[in-house]
Structures are given as C-alpha cells and as structure tokens.
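Reviewer 2 asked us to include a model.

Predict the structure of this chain.
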Amino acid sequence: MRLVFVFFALLLSLHAAPVIAQKKTAKAAVKRNYIRRDLSLAFNRPATWLEFSKTPEPNLVVGFQSTVEERFSDRLVARGIITVSVQKAPGPVLPPNYAETLDADYKKRDPNYTLSGTARFKVAGEPAVSIAFQSREPVIGAIARSRQVWVVRNKRLYLFTLTARLEDFDRYVEDFDKMMASIQWLPAK
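Predicted model (structure tokens):
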C-alpha cells in the first residue's frame, strides 16, 4: 500500500512539475530586469516599454519608449521616453547647488524652458537631485515635460530622464517612479 502511495505521489509531482515551471517562467518574463554590471547598475525596466540604444547622444546607455506612438510627418514618434545616461562625475558628490546650476544652464540654452520644481532625496541609498521642467520639443514643436534624476556613485554621474508631451506626462510618471524605486547598485568592478 505504501509503495502504491509513493508511486501516485511521484506520478502526480511529475505531472504538476511542467505546470509549476510554466508559471515560474511566465512570472520571470514579466519582470524584465535590466542589468549593466560594467556600470554597477540594475533596475526593473518598464514592462511594456520598448528598449532602444542608438541615438546621437554620446553618454546614453539605454532608452525605453512607450508603446503608444503617433504619426508625425513620415515617422512614428513615441509619446513617452525614459533615458539613462552615464558620464564621469564632477566630484565625489553632487554640489549643494546642483539643481540651481542645471536650471541656469537650461535657461541659457532654451528660451522655452520653464522650471517646474526641484527635490533632493536618495536613490538606492545615494543622494540624488531631481529637476522637473517644461520646454518645446524641437522635432515636433510640442510642449514636453521632463523629470531628471541625477545621482553620483563610484565616480560616475547617472542621469535618469522621463520626457513626454505635456498632456501625456502624468500617465508615464508611475512607470518611471517604479523603475527608480527598483534601482540597485551592483559592486564596482
């Protein structure tokens, strides 16, 4: 009797194993972690956003665009974009007046620039500066809203940016905030 029970238990576990494996595989596919060991950076990218990396911006590491697009002239334009850029840090930490310095620089370069707000907080334990602003997007002429988060870690300046048309910005903030909350700093190489 005991042998029969063990046989049925084994048979049942073999039958259930593919179902359990399928569920684990499905969950893993949804998470979509983005890991760059060379930059000591990992985060959960927005699950429904498309990845891109080819742009003229020299410090761009990766970008993600919303899957909501609209036709502009002869091409499709994403309504929301998240970019991650990395460059050499100006010092071991961000200067106390970093937001003000950025604001002054942006005002000089863009006559349509308007500051919405600044904040200081931490990203995965590291001090960060956030700046939010509006400007006219040069390609399509629409008003765009952006939020940038600047963080220094291990002699690198990380810049995380969300940009979207003014009327679409609020719908993408949650995706950006979730990505920012998921950031992990990996051991430096």
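Residues 1-31 form one domain. The chain has two domains: 1-31, 33-185. We have added this to the supplementary material.
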